[in-house]
């Protein structure tokens, strides 16, 4: 680990270098990034506040990659507190050590650095990175990731004139340290102060288009608390990709994008030459707030006539029905040339059913959130390190049940065991009056069903076992359920979490330990040579450099 003056000198040298892409004989290409994480003043809603910048940017730099690329990201932490980045949707095949969450990876200490070694193995699509600790996400530090198809792999639409990222999300004017203190004190955050598009408020960001050309927009909800609706004045959107899956190409006038979710749409500049509004507004909230960016035609005669487009507000059925129309494109290639539909997920017998019920609770006089009664508490040592080094007393497998139980919630380091090569049905059950958004690290899964009311085995009669979309984040509507199928083909310690960031911070998460007795590198990589060690793992050895 570099420290002090040596770290500063090294960082200055590395930041002066361009982003490098290197082809090593016999290996997939390498792309190298050097990032300096700092505090800086930002004004996203017109009020000065402390943000988290990467190389001076808010949001952070875009990562561009191609299927199977190796991504080497050297992160220097110039904050005054420990820091970690996680990579939403990048599956970290056989390598949960690099996942960048509290249960897998030691934080980068102030003044230190850590080099992530990632691979976009057998992946295409739209992803993002974000800071995973200490409610840092409320201050920035997030950015987009694009993983393009390899040149010889067919893509089911013509190349767009440009590929745009739209990071949308709610925002608080309060600094993240104060928001964190509120949560630690048992207080609610309250309603967000506004919405952002690529870190800017109302009409603060412009996307420029040429008349007659078609553009790809990658839309990701990087917010903390609210589902959002996305629409473009006078234009329709053709959905082509959801979180690494090519979809049936349906056309929409607006799209609901829940917390942590990503969509790719094609938009054709087929309207008269004006500046049109790109509108984002909150969903399922008592108060509706919105923001806008600008779709600027190069031959624009000024602001487009007519009102900004309205969107849905609190209608749950509208959103549920739209979600059911999002389906897998069975004939399109994914990251490999064979059609996505060649994997018949609905014809595989499941080996286990896991039912997960979220809940709100008061524990020791403070607000907490739980899964199957357990409100997760991070231990002093990352779970993955404790597992690797067989350190006793850090966690026990089975501390969370695989089905809901009656009784009050309680605090516990929450780890569920699962067998490698299993094929599980997971049912998310939401008896609360707010929409939930769930993410599973290390995996994509097929969304096979969602409906209102209580799930029962009879609910399987309405499952889509043919063309349900494969993705990594899924919504669960109020007083409703969502079911997924997931092959447990990735050994490791994987975070299962709420994407509502206050709920995640206050315990609505757990870790799924997918285990095999095999020690072969074909099943799981060993600990990285440069792994940081903390807690009870301090003093242990990794591997020779």
TrEMBL record:
Signal peptide residue numbers: 1-26
Pfam families reported for this sequence: Cu-oxidase, Cu-oxidase_2, Cu-oxidase_3
Gene3D superfamilies, sorted: Cupredoxins - blue copper proteins (2.60.40.420)
InterPro entries: Cu-oxidase-like_N, Cu-oxidase_2nd, Cu-oxidase_C, Cu-oxidase_fam, Cupredoxin, CuRO_1_AAO-like
Residue ranges of domain Plastocyanin-like in the record: 37-150, 163-299, 381-517
Keywords noted in UniProt: Signal
Superkingdom in the source lineage: Eukaryota
GO molecular function: copper ion binding; oxidoreductase activity
Similarity-based family: Belongs to the multicopper oxidase family.
Name of the protein in question: L-ascorbate oxidase
């Amino acid at each position: 680990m570099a420290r002090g003056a040596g770290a500063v000198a090294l960082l200055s040298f590395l930041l002066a270098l361009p982003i490098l892409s290197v082809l090593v004989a016999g290996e997939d290409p390498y792309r190298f990034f050097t990032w300096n994480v700092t505090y800086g003043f930002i004004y996203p809603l017109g009020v000065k506040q402390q943000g988290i910048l990467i190389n001076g940017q808010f949001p952070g730099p875009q990562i561009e990659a191609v299927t199977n690329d190796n991504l080497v990201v050297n992160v220097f932490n110039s904050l005054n507190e420990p820091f970690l980045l996680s990579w939403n949707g990048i599956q970290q095949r056989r390598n949960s050590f690099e996942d960048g969450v509290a249960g897998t990876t030691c934080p980068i200490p102030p003044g230190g650095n850590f080099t992530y070694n990632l691979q976009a193995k057998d992946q295409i699509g739209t992803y993002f990175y974000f800071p995973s600790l200490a409610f840092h996400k409320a201050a920035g530090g997030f950015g987009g990731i694009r993983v393009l198809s390899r040149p010889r792999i067919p893509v089911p639409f013509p190349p767009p004139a440009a590929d745009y990222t739209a990071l949308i999300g709610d925002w608080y004017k309060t600094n993240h340290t104060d928001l964190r203190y509120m949560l630690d004190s048992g207080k609610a955050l309250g309603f967000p102060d506004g919405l952002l598009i690529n870190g800017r408020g109302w009409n603060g960001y412009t996307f420029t288009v040429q008349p007659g050309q078609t553009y790809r927009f990658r839309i990701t909800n990087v917010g903390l608390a609210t589902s959002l609706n996305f629409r473009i004045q006078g234009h329709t959107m053709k959905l082509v990709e959801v979180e690494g899956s090519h979809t049936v190409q349906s056309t929409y006038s607006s799209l609901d994008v829940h917390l942590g979710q990503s969509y790719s749409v094609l938009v054709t500049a087929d309207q008269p030459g004006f500046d049109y509004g790109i509108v984002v507004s909150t969903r399922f909230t008592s108060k509706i707030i919105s923001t806008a960016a600008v779709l600027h035609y190069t031959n624009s005669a000024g602001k487009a006539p007519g009102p900004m487009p309205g969107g849905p507000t609190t209608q749950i059925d509208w959103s549920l029905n739209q979600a059911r129309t999002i389906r897998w494109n069975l004939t399109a290639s994914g990251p490999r040339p064979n059609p996505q539909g060649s994997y018949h997920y609905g014809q595989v017998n499941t080996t286990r059913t896991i039912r997960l019920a979220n809940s709100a609770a008061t524990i020791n006089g403070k607000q907490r959130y739980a899964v199957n009664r357990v409100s997760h508490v991070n231990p002093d040592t990352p779970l993955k390190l404790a597992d690797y080094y067989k350190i006793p007393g850090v966690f026990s497998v089975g501390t969370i049940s695989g089905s809901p139980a009656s009784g009050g919630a309680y605090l516990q380091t929450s780890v569920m065991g699962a067998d490698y090569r299993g094929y599980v049905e997971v049912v998310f059950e939401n008896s609360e009056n707010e929409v939930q958004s769930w993410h599973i690290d290390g995996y994509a899964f097929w969304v096979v069903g969602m409906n209102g009311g209580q799930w029962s085995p009879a609910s399987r009669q309405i499952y889509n076992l043919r063309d349900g979309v494969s993705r990594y984040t899924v919504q669960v509507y109020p007083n409703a359920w969502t079911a997924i199928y997931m092959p447990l083909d990735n050994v490791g310690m994987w975070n299962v979490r709420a994407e509502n960031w206050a709920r995640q911070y206050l315990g609505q998460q757990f870790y799924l330990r997918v285990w095999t007795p095999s020690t072969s590198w074909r099943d799981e990589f060993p600990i990285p040579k440069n792994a940081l060690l903390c807690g009870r793992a301090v003093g242990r050895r990794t591997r020779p450099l």
